[in-house]
Amino acid sequence: MRSGSFMSFPSVPPFEDGCQLIRGPGRPFKRECPGKLVKMLFFTFLMAGLVIGTIFVSHMSEYYPAGSTFLSNSLSLCRDNLNSYIEPVQWVNPESWLRGLSIHHNMSDEELLWLASMAPQREGVPIQRVPKIAFMFLTRGPLPLAPLWERFFGGNQGLFSIYVHTHPNYKLDMPTSSVFYRRQIPSKEAQWGDVTMCDAERRLLANALLDFSNERFVLLSETCIPLHPFPIIYNYLILANESFIGAFDDPGPYGRGRYNPQMAPLITVEAWRKGSQWFELKRNLAVELVSDTLYYPKFKDFCIPGCYVDEHYFPTFLSIEFGPQLANRSVTSVDWSRGGAHPAMFGGGDITEAFLTNIREQRDCLYNGQPGSICFLFARKFSPSTLEPLVQLAPKFLDTVGSVDLRQR
């Protein structure tokens, strides 16, 4: 045989089962069954697939109710930090999503503001619901007038939400029966006249925005009191066309005198506004305030004492971008008649029926474009010593009258 040629070895014809006797160079005959091997491999993979599929379906059924489609199941399951599962029904079920996320979280301010800035672009709500008012309390610590507020809120569950921002080292200890129980949000220190005060206000708004049922947002302090029964205040705010925040041009040293030219050209001195920090807002404007990354840095960098961010940021930003949506007045009454940098603080001796009636009946305002029969819904500043006389007079000014309008919105 020539060098480099190949020697072939005959094979025995196949048996009936498809096997053959095959011999290689220098080797004995060997029985090989390629078809049988393929069948065994196919069977092995088939059984493994059935076992894995059974385990997968059994595992998924622990997380999702019967009747869920495979597509929604596969899209919904998320893994958090590789060791804990998030049950995604709250994200895909509109009713669960509208109920909102827990206020007891460990999000940073940046994460919180980002999440709260999300807003539906489609009009309407896919389920029936009752709009709520978010009552946001900005306080150093305790709520000395809480018993009065408990009476105000009583019997109106489902129409309001409560959020309390305190000093971070203070724990609001309320009984389980209280409307304030577990309503303290993750807080940071806020100092009067400092940008941290506005940070706290935006933190309150962001937490309240996590509940999609909240339609109106009221900022209050521990010294505030309600002036009318809950149904009146509820209807007043839910049916209002505008948001209640003061935004006026003060040409004096405490208005334009606080303007910093370094804010131009974004903010001009002509657009500079002043107003009370105790605001009330519709949901769309609350979303805008937590979403703003254009105006807020200007105030943070250039509105420094004696420029007070909480008196200028909200009024200036909202009047520039959304002026027609503002009533340009507050619904919280304060008394500046005694002079000084702060409004008057009332004590127990000030509280009489005539005193409260005088505040309640101030009517120099417009409501939805018409002369208002009510101008102020709340009042401040009331010291802890006012609690007892206020509770005694509560039947005369907080008794429930009328009915609440529960129209779907």
UniProtKB/TrEMBL annotation:
Residue intervals passing through the bilayer: 37-57
Membrane topology category: Single-pass type II membrane protein
Protein keywords: Glycoprotein, Glycosyltransferase, Membrane, Transferase, Transmembrane, Transmembrane helix
Pfam families in UniProt: Branch
Chief location bin: membrane
PANTHER family the UniProt entry points to: CORE-2/I-BRANCHING BETA-1,6-N-ACETYLGLUCOSAMINYLTRANSFERASE FAMILY PROTEIN-RELATED (PTHR31042), CORE-2_I-BRANCHING BETA-1,6-N-ACETYLGLUCOSAMINYLTRANSFERASE FAMILY PROTEIN (PTHR31042:SF8)
Name this polypeptide is given: Uncharacterized protein
Biological source species: Ceratopteris richardii (Triangle waterfern)
Upper taxonomic lineage: Eukaryota, Viridiplantae, Streptophyta, Embryophyta, Tracheophyta
